[in-house]
Amino acid sequence: MQDLHRIFFGEADTATSFFFIEIVFRTVVMYVYTIFLARLVGKGGIGQIGPFEFVLVIAVGSAAGDPMIYPDVALLHGIAAITVVILLHRLTTALLNRHRKLEHRLEGEPLLVVDNGEVCENRLGAGALTRRELFSLLRQAGIRNTGEVEYAWFEASGHLSVFRRKVAAKHGVSTFPGND
Length: 180
Fold this sequence. Notes:
Helix content is 54%, strand content 10%. A four-stranded antiparallel β-sheet has the order 2-1-3-4, covered by helices on one side. The chain is elongated, with a radius of gyration of 23 Å. It is an alpha+beta fold. The chain is built from seven helices and four strands, in the order H-H-H-H-H-H-E-E-H-E-E. Helix 4 runs antiparallel to helix 5. Strand 3 (149-154) and strand 4 form a beta hairpin.
């Protein structure tokens, strides 16, 4: 019985209501800080998911994993952390759905990276997308030359939306490796 109490509530010094409040506070701070860092990494660094989903996966994984492996981390502490993360995610989603300006600011907006066959060099880099990554994404879309592209938008999700010209322009840059 004493072992079950330790497993669920932790050792005597962590089995207090104040420690549960501390867990909630620590979780909120780490959630907000991780979202901030995810935004700094940029769209390309996270991949196919947005910064909020990225933070959710990391936070839930960590909160679930620690009580599984470390005997000094009580199950209820992990459950409390996961619950707070999920509630924060739901709250954040609700706020972003109500306030579009906040959503655009936190999740980012699409970035025009090819305009009428010309690569918008001033929009590349700075944690968003490099020329090499752009050309790789264009090749994946079946683009051999930037002259084939009317517009290409680098989405907040990390995807590239490509709008082809009806007739390819004669100018442009090859997207084949070595030209990036």
